[in-house]
């Protein structure tokens, strides 16, 4: 099949050397320049110099880079001679004064820049600066501060301060307000500067679960109470001991005092020196969460330690004692001396009484002290008696549980009262010379099961066990604490 064109008949299809627009010219018919151009188009002049190092393409790329750098250096202006630029002529006369008036100059250099315009007849001086119609202020409750005085220092009138104190005191004792409590308030417009501003509104977080609001309605302040929903779910924190039990617990967010309480509780059942980095701690803490977002942590409720296969689980009961999950509490230790710098003047055992004039059993030891020396509890316990007792004079009985009691005689005065729980090292009284005594000293007795023993070097081991209704309530508390999810 043939097609007609301007050059005659050409074969259609298959092998015809025809292109769109012009016919393809055989390679033999190309000029030398066209051949060189076609070959140059197939050469990669900028290859990747990081690959195929040493190949023909790499050397070609290196030569291209060198040629470009040489060309840039050759056509660059010389750097030995500076390039001159035009410098504006300095301003003088009126032009300089105009430019200076619009400039900002350092005051330290005596600057007098800026435009100054004197006042004319249109300027009316103000007799006094206007006040804001309403002011928002915040007062803070201080240590031992009076709530009324605090309001007056914040600018509240004496009458409004008295009314506010009376309204708030009817809802919450003012002495219960914690130092540092923020009291935002709004003060209204006053007729002149010689009087205090009236109190328009006041907000006070009286308790963790109650918000008090004072608002002015007409000429009276009205108190509004708002209860805040509180969630009392305890907080449980668990984690590995790592390099330090104290640091690990603090890093998990446990307050310092609770960490110290936890370590003290665990140390009563388990040697702290045996705690390893692979062990894990477990704490359950009292927590209150308000609907407004605040969180308040309380006492430590549960102290646990996983030491390999051994587990220590302690729960504090209502008597302040840490019991194991089984309901038992075992304590071991030694009593410390009740006074510092002790000097024993009479030992335990048979002795000649200096006042009665015959030999009899001395059921304790006498410690020579200056009059009024503080007496410290040698261990945790409860005061069962504090009063006058015959020849002992002012006398204290301290029960430590497990049938162990300590007695203190010839005191000058008391620092505790019956029924009070005291901790180790707490001051319970002061030495004196009351009763049958030849001079200021402390008579100290230790009784186990009602029988006097030598207080020097006394070590004790007591086991307390809950039973009956207390044991059932204790078991229920343990189950509820163990059911708390960590971090919930």
Automatic annotation (TrEMBL):
Origin superkingdom: Bacteria
Keyword NAD applies: no
One Pfam family cited in the UniProt record for this chain: Peptidase_M23
UniProt keyword annotations, A-Z: Hydrolase, Metal-binding, Metalloprotease, Protease, Signal, Zinc
UniProt KW Magnesium keyword: no
Localization per Swiss-Prot or TrEMBL: Cell envelope
Cofactor dependence: Zn(2+)
Annotated M23ase beta-sheet core domain residues: 360-455
UniProt xrefs under InterPro entries: Cell_wall_metabolism_enzyme, Csd3_N2, Dup_hybrid_motif, M23ase_b-sheet_dom
Domain Csd3-like second N-terminal: 235-348
PANTHER family tied to this protein: L-ALA--D-GLU ENDOPEPTIDASE (PTHR21666:SF289), PEPTIDASE-RELATED (PTHR21666)
Protein name: M23 family metallopeptidase
């Amino acid at each position: 099949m043939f097609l007609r064109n301007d050059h005659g008949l050409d074969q259609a299809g298959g092998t015809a050397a025809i292109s769109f627009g012009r016919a393809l010219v055989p390679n033999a018919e190309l000029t030398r320049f066209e051949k060189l151009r076609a070959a140059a188009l197939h050469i990669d002049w900028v290859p990747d110099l990081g690959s195929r190092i040493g190949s023909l393409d790499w050397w070609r790329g290196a030569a291209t880079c060198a040629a470009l750098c040489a060309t840039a250096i050759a056509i660059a202006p010389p750097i030995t001679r500076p390039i001159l630029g035009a410098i504006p002529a300095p301003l003088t006369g009126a032009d300089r004064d105009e430019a200076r008036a619009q400039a900002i100059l350092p005051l330290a250099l005596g600057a007098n820049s800026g435009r100054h315009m004197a006042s004319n007849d249109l300027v009316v001086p103000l007799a006094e600066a206007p006040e804001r119609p309403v002011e928002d202020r915040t007062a803070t409750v201080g240590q031992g501060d009076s709530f009324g005085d605090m309001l007056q220092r914040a600018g509240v009138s004496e009458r409004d301060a008295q009314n506010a104190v009376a309204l708030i005191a009817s809802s919450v004792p003012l002495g219960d307000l914690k130092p540092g409590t923020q009291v935002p308030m709004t003060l209204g417009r006053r007729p002149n500067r010689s009087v205090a501003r009236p109190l328009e509104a006041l907000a006070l977080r009286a308790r963790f679960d109650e918000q008090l609001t004072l608002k002015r309605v007409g000429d009276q302040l009205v108190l509004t109470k708002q209860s805040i929903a509180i969630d009392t779910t305890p907080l449980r924190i668990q984690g590995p001991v790592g390099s330090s039990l104290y640091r690990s617990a603090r890093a998990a967010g446990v307050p310092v005092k609770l960490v110290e309480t936890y370590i003290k509780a665990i140390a009563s059942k388990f040697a702290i020196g045996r705690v390893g980095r692979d062990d894990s701690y477990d704490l359950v803490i009292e927590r209150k969460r308000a609907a407004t977002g605040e969180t308040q942590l309380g006492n430590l409720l549960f102290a646990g330690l996983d030491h390999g296969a051994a587990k220590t689980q302690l729960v504090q009961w209502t008597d302040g004692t840490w019991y194991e999950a089984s309901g038992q509490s075992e304590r071991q230790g030694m009593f410390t001396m009740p006074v510092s710098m002790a000097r024993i003047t009479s030992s335990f055992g048979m002795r000649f009484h200096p006042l009665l004039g015959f030999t009899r059993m001395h059921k304790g030891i006498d410690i020579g002290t200056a009059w009024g020396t503080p007496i410290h509890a040698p261990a945790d316990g409860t005061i069962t008696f504090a009063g006058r007792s015959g020849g002992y004079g002012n006398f204290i009985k301290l029960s430590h549980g497990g049938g162990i009691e300590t007695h203190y005689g010839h005191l000058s005065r008391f620092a505790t009262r019956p029924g009070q729980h005291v901790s180790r090292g707490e001051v319970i009284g002061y030495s004196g010379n009351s009763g049958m005594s030849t001079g200021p000293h402390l008579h100290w007795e230790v009784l186990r099961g009602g029988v006097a023993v030598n207080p020097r070097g006394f070590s004790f081991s007591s086991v307390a066990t809950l039973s009956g209704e207390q044991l059932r309530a204790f078991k229920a508390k343990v189950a509820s604490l163990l059911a708390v999810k960590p971090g919930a």
